[in-house]
Amino acid sequence: MIPANRQRNYLQSAVYVAIAAVLASVLLERLLTYAEAAEKAGMEVAIARLNSALYVRLAYHALRGEYQVIEAMRSQSPFVLTRWQSVDYLGELDGIPKDARGSGKWLYDRQRSELVYLPNRKRHLTMPAETPEADAIRFRVELAQAARFTYTGVAIRPAAPYRWEPLP
Asked: Residue 4's pLDDT is what?
């Protein structure tokens, strides 16, 4: 134990600063990892909400016999179909604007009929090599049919496989 009245030398101070720096860097790395995990969870919650609302829309239109409206669901924005107002939704656009990348926002790409999420934190996001936009996760609305005019479900599925695992 070092007596309280003894002065520290430069080596001791440097060791204390180094220990504090290491602890701060570990803490910041963990905080970034948890922030990325929270962003991923938010994206998954949004997809689940949209899936539920689309299923209700499908049932509503099927009960009314509006099969053309159901078929058109594949090429419309799930946010518009479900009338969900979100501050993170940029709207229906032709492609991805350059200023929107890395913003944690949603948009609907009219050219490809896909819902797009632009993650803000993507350190643990891996996309296939053939994916042209490695910083955008794309989804499609898929209708499940047993027969003509017999719909068994609707779901938002990834257009291309991706892996996003911030936490082990």
From this structure: 63
Scored b (16 or more CB within 10 A) or e, 51-79 reads: bebbeebbeebeeeeeeebbeebeeebbb
Tell me the DSSP string of 2-27. Answer: --TTSPP-HHHHHHHHHHHHHHHHHH
Tokens encoding 27: 């803490």
pLDDT tens profile 98-109: 887 778 899 999
CB 152 within 8 A of CB 158: no
pLDDT for 141 beyond 70: yes
Which amino acid makes up residue 67?
Y
Q: Which helix (H) or strand (E) holds 140?
A: strand 137-147
Residues constituting the chain: 168
Provide the whole-model pTM.
0.82
Q: Which pLDDT does position 138 carry in this prediction? A: 92
DSSP string, 84-133: ---TTEEEEESS--GGGTTSSEEEEETTTTEEEEE-S--TTEE--TT-S-
Phi then psi dihedrals of residue 129, to 5 deg: -60, -30
